Queue: 3 jobs
Job 1
Amino acid sequence: MTPNAASASSGPSRRSFLASTAVATAAVAGGMPLLAACGGSDSGSKDGTTSGKSAKKLLPAYVASNVVSPDIPSKNGSAMGFTGKLDLAGLKTSVPKKLGKGSRVKIMSPFWGTPPKGDNPYYTTMNDLIGVDIAWQNQDGNTYDEKLGAVLASSDLPDVVVIPSWNMGGKIPSAIISKFADLGPYLSGDAIKKYPNLAAIPSGAWQYSIFGGKLRGLPQPAPSVPGIVPFYRKDVFDKEGYELPKSPDEFLALAKEITRPRAKVWACDDMKWAAFEFFGVLSGSEKPLGWNLADGKMVYRVETEEYLEALEWVRKLYAAGVVHPDAKAANQGTAGDRFTAGQVLMYNQNISDWWGKMAEQAGQNADFRISGMDIFGADGGDPTLWAGSPAGIFAFVNKKASKTVVEDILAAANVTAAPYGTKEYMLTNYGVEGTHYTVKDGVPTKNDKGNQEVLNAYVMLASPAPTIAHPDLPDIAKEQVEWQQRMGAFTKKSTFWGMQITEPARYTNLSNDFEQLEDDVVRGRKKISDVQQAVSDWKKQGGDKLRDWYQKLHDTNGSAQ
């Protein structure tokens, strides 16, 4: 975790999450059967979803937090923003009474970095505040898929398992349904009021935590605004007088103007993610969001003209020589490093890089300035953006856990979901003052011990409503939230937004090869016609049958609109 980290919850894809500072900012940021038309009851087939009246019966009551008021309220699906200095003396208390009863709880979670020793001051202080003896079983986040599969296949599960949405492929959803507890009796309706910080989590995040007809997940809520930002070097743009492009054609023309290979300057890195936004392509990070009912027909993202147009545009960037050559190799360095080095002036990444790069460069390049360009439409007009999932990471409780253990886990989650500006939030995200961080002029700064111990653990259990706050760089927090609010005005919810859908197992890997094909096409190794052929094969191999399945799902459940 980087110094001064606060929260910017969002739902990036697995690749963008691992390649950015999203881990550092992630925390800052009763049983109804499955519907009969979608696979039968909870004891039978596991595919389908729960929506409408059935879902509402499972949802916790929403009670907005009034402990702290944001400087910038949420709007158009954005995070809320805090843009002032931090006043430690003015921190609020959101958990006045210790709810934990002293259980020993084992939690398995992905971890990026070197895990600290289990008896470190951060863990012991958090456990004392919660009243629960939590032992972390941290696993390498880069290979978490492998460990997760093995653990879920065994009969010896930890009390809690954290599962990011990008690790939910294959048989994982079925394992979630069969292995983890129904939290409905503890949280549905007014029951959640025992845990006020959990009650302040938006209802959309809770609905997305329904698996197999029961409320099973503790969510990390995310803004509905797309999380990928087309970044540019504002300091260089201002110096050189470059004007921000307002269409794909203007982007390409500007890219040609910027690129000077002899000076080792290229306009951009791989821009595929941004291209999908420019051309209005349905989300691809989670399969249900890739489906949409348009003009009475159920359509998958790879079948659309927008998808082909986006790939063709990125292919033109590569063909024009305006993309850094290391991006073409795809395994040479990182786009972010090339950006800070001034070798590329535009790249796309998770919104957390806005603060991450500014904080990283603060002591190295005083003139460095990153900013995000507004997303434009394919014709130069307003864009069509698609909402991301309302939550991106979940913690699940072992089905065999006793009532006391479940309640102690919820007591812990109620602390980690405390809002920004509270004592519980500071301890969860920064550790112990003096031991893990110091505060000067209202800016908390982690020391080496803080960077070693206060990361990737308690923040993974549950999070508050999406929040962006950077006491060290309040202007960046303001820019991030305002960008989200502008883009949120053009963001739509696709047909299955907010529904946690489990596809029939025979279809789960059907579209796995498209990402590699996309990368090959934009780099000139394959052709657009190869994509069209792959789409034709996808239809024959089950895509058309999967379309029928989604159509039936919609006919039974309706949509998120």
Job 2
Amino acid sequence: MPEHFDADVAIIGYGPTGLVGALSFATKGASVIAFERDHDIYARARAVTINDWTMRIFQDLGIDERIEKVIEPQDQLRWKTYDGQEILRAKQPPSALGTRNTKPRFFSIYQPTMEAELRRCAEETDGIEVRYGAEVVGVEQDDTGVTVTARDGATGAETTTRARYALAADGGSSLTRKLLGISMLGDTDPQLWIVIDCRVKRWWPDRDLLTFWSDKERPVVDIALSAGNHRWEIPLRPGETEADFQTPEQVWPLLDAMGMTPDDVEIHQHAFYRHHVRAAETWRLDRVFLAGDAAHLMPPWAGAGMQSGMRDAHNLAWKLTRVLRGEMDVAVLDTYEAERRPNVEFFTQIAVQFGRVIKQQVSPEELEAMNAVPENTVTPYEEPMMAPPVLDAGGWLRGEVEDASIVGRMIPQPVVGDTVGLMRRLDELLGDGFVLLGADTDPRTLLSAEEKAEWDALGARYLTIRPKTAYTQGPDELVDLEGVLLGWFARYGVQAIALRPDKFVAASDKAGLAVPAF
């Protein structure tokens, strides 16, 4: 008799990482039971931004239009001093990853509002059950599954749930991580920061600009959030403690120093934080995976903490769902940490260096070196925080991952056409599976019979991209209306690529189009 499972995946913690995990698994056909200790969304606005990569994940989940209605584009940032001198202003270039309208790369969010919309999306998705008020107190696993023990916060009653795998997204103090005996390694900066969230009462000049008040003693991050909210993040000076800022009246002098008055904003809430640079020694123990803050903590300066957790969950979901369906070998799960840890470390280091700049701890020579544009590169240079994502070697990829290689890169997402004239963003015509794309070439002609059989087993599609100046020749073709894709192929000297479901390039004809090994 087959063993009974209550769900394919148990998700422990139902914040942004758990939510995106639940949506990613469910939309790909896996059943989910999520456990969340609290009934209500955490009231404090922790994260302040998402970018075009995260929006592309929302697009894959079919929710990007809904999320876009509760967030706001953010396309400029500046540095200024307390005496009003503007040191630098930068406008971000349009996104290449396919966000709608003006194609912004970054969006301002108000996390509780966005999280509420994510919950509504999940409520309307089949295959997701959420048990609010259930605190997970035990996680045990064996060769075939995971048993989660949860305690009801109201009655104290305990229940057990059986799942094939589990995703622990229960935050920086993750009990699951502790139950598994996984250590959290790294440091915590002793500097204490006050985070002040306000409701906007009237507009002030350049309120929409992300502003860094540059000062060695009191640097400030000044952020316009969505839904009429605004935030300031300010370090306490030596000798100052939380006791000095208990009431709005005590907090107001900090805002007054930047020209704010009670006519401009109303203080909604404030809290105190320290910044962490920490990561779990491993992100997986057999059938249990760590994601988000349970796996890694970074300073806020790159705006990538929450987003990294969402990307963790999405990366794991497309692999694990195919393992559950028997389409991929379980060995592919080893690439989860191999792909995600380097990316998290990349953004952690950006955050650390960005924080040093904000706090004026970087010399002019260091700043010049940080901003130096590499010479003789194939890929056009962009600031690391704004550049399209690239996977490091060690993941589910075939071929070198380097400047001159297309492998590991996320494909741009222009508007393309099909053979009968339908015009859509690329992903809408690609679908959510594996796709081999040829540049004015049928990619099937570049495969051996064995290679094609392997891709066929994964349900791959085969599409040819034609220039808009030519006729299409068959049904399995797309038209490069904006001239983006064929130029992108040519830059890296390839005729065809194999795309993963997350739109990263897994292989190219330059390094061999066979299905990557595990």
Job 3
Amino acid sequence: MPASPCLTDTEEGRRLAAVEAEGWHRWGPYLSERQWGTVREDYSEGGTAWDYLPHDHARSRAYRWGEDGIAGFGDDRQLWCLALALWNGRDPILKERMFGLTNSEGNHGEDVKELWWYLDATPTHSYMRMLYKYPHAAFPYADLVAENGRRKGRNLPEYEIADTGAFEGGRYHDVTVEYAKAAPDDVLMRITIANRGPEAADLHVLPQLWARNTWSWGRESWEPEQPRPLLRLTETGAVEATRGRASPLRFASLQPAAFLFCENETNTRRLFGTPGPAHPKDAINDRIVEGRHDAVSPLSEGTKCAAWTTVTVPAGGSVSLRFRLGPAANPDERDIAAFDAVMARRLAEADAFYAALQRDVADPDARLVQRQALAGMLWSKQFYHFDVRRWLSGDPAQPAPPEARRHGRDSDWTHLNNADIVSMPDKWEYPWYAAWDLAFHCVTFALIDPAFAKGQLILLTREWYMHPNGQLPAYEWAFGDVNPPVHAWAALRVYRMDQAMTGKADRAFLERVFHKLMLNFTWWVNRKDAGDRNVFQGGFLGLDNIGIFDRSATLPTGGTLDQADGTAWMAMYSLNLMRIALELAVEDPVYEDIATKFFEHFLTIAEAMTHVGGDGSGLWDETDEFYYDVLSLPDGRQVPLRVRSLVGLIPLCAVEVLDENLSERFPAFARRARWLLGHRPDLAAQVSRWEEPGRGNRVLLSLLRRHRMKALLRRMLDESEFLSPHGVRSVSKAHAAAPFRFPWDGQTFAVDYEPAESTTAVFGGNSNWRGPIWLPINYLLVEALTEFGRFYGPEFKIECPAGSGRYLTLPEIADELSTRLTRLVLRGPDGRRPVLGDVPLFQDDPHFRDHVPFHEYFHGDTGAGLGAAHQTGWTGLLALLLQPRRDVGGGQVPAAPEG
């Protein structure tokens, strides 16, 4: 039999190789699902983004910095936008975008109240498919707001759309949107409506094409004159779209449709009571819902249009509608058979691509879940546009913003000027990039599109992102906040995965990102080590609610908080940069000197974690055999905060194994390292000894000697503490019976174990890390166990679970943890997926049970999905856990099979 093809042998793989030359990425799913309620659109004095542009304004107000829509598709500058609108004949408004609660309306913070899934996608966006569920009855907007408003307590569950009865009796439409590209700039859109109910039901279907509004704000002196775009109905019954010097496009319906036109401009009359455009952004809504014929343009032209079709879908039946957006020079193709042939061909190519990727994944359910995880990653790309300097100062053609904004949120990030395609954590709840989320995204993307993954890591370090002082932008609400420094780790993993896929080592990428990360490392050393002791105070570091204080704020006790996780992250950063420098030294020995520098940084951080301030005390607690944050009080006292949480497990992640031929490959580095360890026994004593090589004469660099590693793993693998049936909890379950309490100045600060949503909000927003499982640290722990296993070998075993009498090697424990994590989403022996919780509709209904949501985090005991429902960004790491691993470049990575 001939060998099965590898990824690059498939048609999609060949397209991917030519993606830049042929422009296959020019069009994609680049619209947000929520532009309203974002910082970018907030011009209020006090930074109240949720209130300044709420959902009720979204249909009537032109956005300044982006666009949103259901199943949105557009070009990579977001000049033209295509998305779906629906109306069931009962709703008070068109369904043009996803609805959810603002931060103050939900008892657990912002919260989307719609059901949709990303089911399929290819890396070049040659084929995409998503599913949206739309009730026959009026969408329960008011009920969702009112009932969630009544549930004030954080101990109460959220009121979800499934609780409203909106889907009872199958009285809803499954609306599937597919895109296929006949060519890089020729987009086919097929909308299939399936009626799951017992009676026929009508549905108004309105795919909308519009131009992003770039003309209402006034141009700066340096900006070129931009002619106003135009959509107009032609004699052929299609819409011609023109914009500046760009080649015109044509938008056509392959079945009879009424085209409606208006302007993508704010309805100032409705919102502010002032005169405005005759046919504003919400005119199509008013024509359909209110029956106002005069609402839309009588000239059949504007900057926004919709192809309006009303279908009656029989009970249990389905109807498909077809639309095409492509070059106006193309023939006016309305051949349904030819259209469907392109769709079928692109789907077949997607199947072939994933068949090659999943060649070694035997379980059909695992293949389904992995494909949906990767689809979510690909659908969550977004055109992200934000010029902070202009946002702060306001636009020439608009009223000046309040003066206080110049000294408010992000006012020290005026260099930031983004207009790029970026991977989002979640295009509804987090429709803005987050630095450390993006690092995890890139590692997952490297499985299918390493070029995109490399480009994203480089993008984050470019001068229009990275601060001149070397800080990486954290996230839109506070670019100056601090995320864990995992980007060197991500760059190294992406480099190795790319090498596994292509057979080539892209050292140019690694060198490019390495130089920028050295600047960022220097920023950490200079800004986040308050006492110059190699102990770090990074702030919340992504673990919002993990401790008793808001770690990003001034402490109520005064003093500083020496963070076990922040310090461990920096030790890990040092090792990652050291390893990258050694990789670069293969071709340029100059990098051996730099590798030595980061080796020394690692040793000094390891020493400091044990001897903070040189007085013998440290972040390691000998009595509990665990790492804790230490509170340094103004009077000089140091108080360990004995909360057993992920904070104390993150030191496991700072591990690197160097292979036996180190001295031959890097003689200068090896010589200097031996000298350093020989002359600084205080440093050498903190890590596994250089002169005690492990299996195959490998050398271990870790914060943990054997005894401490075993002690941490005993806690981590104890099912009464951290080990859940579905992964490692963020806080030890022991705190359920014995909460940690810290009295201070008449107050008592406490942490207990809360496996679902947190009942307190130390950090603000939907703070929740007091027990749930989440993927990023779990994934790093899997990698750390695998790396430790390379050193200790098959003879070294640990009891897993603790107290079970079952002893496993470290790689076997990594596999066990991977299995528990993937058990979150895979169908179990009882036919249930833990992620779907106890909702019978989701678990039992054949139209729900195989659509997998990728939640932000998961219940610490049951595995039910919690938080953002489409956090495919870091939860997409499940796709890597389902993929077999290969040895590449001195380590193991998930990789596509070789051809």
